[in-house]
Design goal:
Helix content: 40-55%
Number of strands: 22
Structural class: alpha+beta
Largest sheet: 5 strands, mixed
Distance between the termini: 66 Å
Strand content: 5-15%
Length: 658
C-alpha cells in the first residue's frame, strides 16, 4: 500500500497496492527528490489503457523491480486525464528525444522536474536494465544529463509563433483556401474503407466535420467529399469499432478496416461522434446514422451517467485481465443463445465457426448496410447474456472538458432529431457542470465522490463554453449564454498570451510547471485554442461583441499559412475558416412559436448560422427592440448586422438566407 490510496482517480487507485512507493504528482514528491538528490520517474497512463495494465502486472507489481525503483528514484504516478498539463510537457519531451509517444509514458527527470530520458512500454528485463542504467548515469554523468535536461526544457519554451513561423494575416479566407485544405486531406483518403490510408485508424471527428462544412460552402470537389464522408461514416458504423449490440464507439481500430477495436470506450470520442453523426444525418438522412446516434445515447445513459447528471470518463478495454473479453463471441455461444435464429444473425454480423479474430472468437461487424433494429430480438437476447459477464472497469471520475464535449453532442443530436430525452440529458448535464464544476467564473477539471479538484485547463473552458453556447441555441435559456460569456472573459484574463496572441493551456493562477505550454494542433480532440477561437466567433455574433469576433479572427489569421498547407493537423481551425468564407447568418426568432420555428430551421443542414430567440422580450442584441407582430412569430435574418424584413414562415426565412 502506498500514498495513492488517498487519491480519487481510478487509475491511481489501480496502483495503490503496488510495492512501488508511488507518489501522486505534487510538492511532496518534488521536494523529496531535491532533498535526497534523486532522479524522478514519472509514469503516466490512464485507466482504460491496455498496455498500462500490462506494464503494471509485469513490472510495477514485481517486488524486485519495485525495490530498485524505491531505492534509486522518487516515483510519481500520473493520470493523464486528470493532469493533461503534466502529460503534455513530458510527452513533448519524449518526442523531442526522437521517441514515438504513447501510453504508458515513462519519463526520467532531474530533481527540479526537467526531463532527460523517457519512453513508453518496457518489458520487465528491459525495464530493469534501464533503471540501473539511468541510476548509474545520474551518479556518474550528472553534468551530461543536466545539459540534456536543460536543452529539452529550453526547446519546449519557445513561443508557438517562433516555433512554427506564425504571422498575423488580416486578409481573411476564401473558397480557394478551403480547396487547398481539402486537397491536403484528400490526398491520403482510403477509397475502399474510408478514413485515411493508414493503420491504426482513429475516427477523428473534426476531419469529417470539416468535410461537411466544405460541402455546405460549395467546394469544387463537394460531390467527391460527400461520397468519401458517407463511405467513412458508414464503414465506421458497420465496423467492429462500433459496439453493434450496446452502442458506443471504441477509441480506435487496430487495422485499416475498422474491424478490430482497441476496446476501451472514451466519453470524449462518443460525445464528438454524436455531433458528427447527427450533422451527417442532417445532410444525408441516412437511417444508419440516426440509429448510431440513438444507440450511442442509450449507451451513454445506461453505462456512463452518474446520479448527479455528470458523465463518467471511460470503460476499460480489459475485463478479467483480457482485452475485449466482454465484447467477443464464439460461434457456439451465439447458437446456444439464439437457436434457430443464429444462422441468419451470424451471416449478418460475419460470425464464423473458427472465429474472425484471435483465439477462435468473433467481433461483430457488418459487410453490408442494414439496421441493428432488424435484429432487435436477437440483440436483446445477446445483451441479456452479455450483461451477465464481468464488465470492463469503469473510470468513474467526471472530467469537465469531456462532459462539455458530451453536452455538445447531446445538444446536436436534439437539434437534428428533436428527441426530448436528448435535451433532458443535456440540461441535467449542464446543471451538473454548473453545480459541481463551476465556482464563480472558474472551472474545476475533475469531480468524484462529491469532490471537485484541479484548477480547470483551457480545454475545460473551451468545451464547456461550446456546450453552453450550443445549449442556449436550442432551448434559449439565457443563463447558459451568460455563463458562456463570463467563462470566456475569464479565459481571456487568465490564459491569454499577449506576446504570442494565443492561449496558454494552464491558468496563470495554477501550479507552475517547468514550462507553460499551448495547444494548437487538432487531434482526436480539437485543440483548446481552436475551440476557443470558434467560441469567441460564435459568442461575438450572438452577443454583438466585436472584441470577441476580432480576437477569433486574429487567432485563426495567425494560423492561416500553416492551415492551408497542413490542414490534416488543423481541421477544427479549418471548420472556423469555412465559416469566414461566406457571411454567417444571424437568425432571431420572436414570438409564441419560437421553439417550433427553431426546430424547423434546424431540419436543414446549414452550419454557418447563429440563433437567438425569445417568446416575447429580451435584451440580447439580436433580439432587442424586436417584437412579434399581430401575435405572429417573426423571423429576422441578418448578415453582417444588416437585416432583411421580418418574415412569418421558415420557408420565407430560407429564401432570404440561400
Amino acid at each position: 500500500m502506498n500514498r495513492l490510496t488517498k487519491e480519487t482517480s481510478p487509475y491511481l487507485l489501480q496502483h495503490a497496492h503496488n510495492p512501488v512507493d508511488w507518489f501522486p504528482w505534487g510538492k511532496e514528491a518534488l521536494e523529496k527528490a531535491k532533498e535526497e538528490n534523486k532522479p524522478i520517474l514519472v509514469s503516466i497512463g490512464y485507466s482504460a489503457c491496455h498496455w498500462c495494465h500490462v506494464m503494471e502486472r509485469e513490472s510495477f507489481e514485481n517486488e524486485e523491480l519495485a525495490a530498485i525503483m524505491n531505492e534509486h528514484f522518487v516515483s510519481i504516478k500520473v493520470d493523464r486525464e486528470e493532469r493533461p498539463d503534466v502529460d503534455a510537457i513530458y510527452m513533448d519531451a519524449v518526442q523531442a528525444m526522437g521517441i514515438q509517444g504513447g501510453w504508458p509514458l515513462n519519463v526520467f527527470l532531474m530533481p527540479d522536474g526537467k526531463p532527460f530520458y523517457g519512453g513508453t512500454y518496457f518489458p520487465p528485463m528491459n525495464w530493469k536494465k534501464l533503471l540501473y542504467a539511468v541510476s548509474e548515469g545520474f551518479q556518474n554523468h550528472l553534468p551530461d544529463l543536466q545539459k540534456s535536461a536543460e536543452g529539452f526544457t529550453e526547446n519546449m519554451s519557445f513561443l508557438e509563433s517562433i516555433k512554427y513561423g506564425l504571422q498575423s494575416d488580416e486578409i481573411g479566407f476564401n473558397i480557394d483556401d478551403l480547396e487547398a485544405m481539402y486537397q491536403k486531406l484528400s490526398g491520403t483518403f482510403d477509397p475502399q474503407w474510408g478514413g485515411f490510408e493508414r493503420a491504426p485508424k482513429f475516427p477523428m471527428p473534426s476531419v469529417w466535420l470539416f468535410l461537411l462544412r466544405y460541402i455546405q460552402a460549395g467546394g469544387e470537389k463537394k460531390e467527391e467529399a460527400l461520397a468519401h464522408l458517407r463511405l467513412t461514416l458508414s464503414k465506421i458504423a458497420k465496423g467492429g469499432i462500433y459496439d453493434q449490440l450496446g452502442g458506443g464507439f471504441a477509441r480506435y481500430s487496430v487495422d485499416g478496416e475498422w474491424f478490430c477495436p482497441h476496446f476501451e470506450k472514451m466519453l470524449y470520442d462518443n460525445g464528438q461522434l454524436l455531433s458528427l453523426y447527427s450533422e451527417a444525418y442532417s445532410l444525408t438522412e441516412l437511417p444508419l446514422y440516426q440509429q448510431v446516434v440513438f444507440e450511442t445515447i442509450d449507451w451513454i445513459e445506461r453505462e456512463m451517467l452518474s446520479p448527479e447528471g455528470g458523465f463518467y470518463s471511460a470503460q476499460d478495454a480489459d475485463s478479467e485481465g483480457v482485452e475485449g473479453k466482454y465484447y467477443v463471441w464464439t460461434h457456439a455461444e451465439i447458437h446456444q443463445i439464439l437457436g434457430e435464429k443464429a444462422d441468419k444473425f451470424c451471416r449478418a454480423y460475419q460470425v464464423s465457426m473458427e472465429g474472425n479474430w484471435e483465439h477462435g472468437v468473433n467481433i461483430l461487424w457488418k459487410n453490408h448496410t442494414f439496421l441493428n433494429s432488424d435484429f432487435a430480438d436477437e440483440i436483446a437476447l445477446l445483451m441479456a447474456y452479455r450483461n451477465q459477464r464481468i464488465k470492463p472497469g469503469l473510470d468513474d471520475k467526471m472530467l469537465c472538458s469531456w462532459n462539455g464535449l458530451a453536452l455538445k453532442g447531446l445538444v446536436d443530436a436534439y437539434k437534428v432529431f428533436g428527441e426530448e430525452k436528448f435535451l433532458d440529458l443535456a440540461l441535467k448535464n449542464a446543471s451538473f457542470i454548473e453545480k459541481h464544476l463551476l465556482n464563480d467564473n472558474q472551472l474545476w477539471h475533475s469531480y468524484k465522490n462529491g469532490e471537485a479538484k484541479i484548477q480547470g485547463f483551457l480545454e475545460d473552458y473551451a468545451a464547456v463554453i461550446d456546450g453552453f453556447t450550443s445549449l442556449y441555441q436550442v432551448c434559449f435559456e439565457e443563463k447558459w449564454l451568460h455563463l458562456a460569456e463570463k467563462l470566456s472573459l475569464y479565459v481571456y484574463l487568465n490564459f491569454w498570451d499577449e506576446e504570442d496572441e494565443l492561449f496558454f493551456f494552464t491558468d496563470k493562477n495554477a501550479e507552475a510547471l517547468i514550462v507553460r505550454k499551448k495547444e494548437i494542433f487538432d487531434n482526436v480532440i480539437p485543440s483548446s485554442n481552436s475551440m476557443m477561437a470558434r467560441n469567441f466567433y460564435t459568442l461575438g455574433l450572438i452577443l454583438d461583441r466585436e472584441d470577441f469576433t476580432d480576437l477569433s479572427k486574429l487567432m485563426v489569421g495567425k494560423m492561416k499559412e500553416m492551415l492551408t498547407k497542413n490542414a490534416d493537423y488543423l481541421t477544427n481551425w479549418a471548420c472556423l475558416a469555412s465559416q469566414l468564407v461566406n457571411p454567417t447568418v444571424e437568425i432571431a426568432i420572436v414570438g409564441e412559436s419560437y421553439l417550433d420555428f427553431r426546430a424547423k430551421i434546424d431540419q436543414k443542414y446549414f452550419p454557418n448560422k447563429v440563433l437567438s430567440a425569445t417568446k416575447d422580450k429580451s435584451e440580447l442584441p439580436l433580439l432587442e427592440h424586436r417584437t412579434a407582430f399581430d401575435g405572429q412569430t417573426n423571423i429576422y435574418v441578418c448578415f453582417n448586422k444588416a437585416c432583411r424584413r421580418p418574415v412569418q414562415t421558415v420557408e420565407e426565412a430560407w429564401e432570404q438566407i440561400l
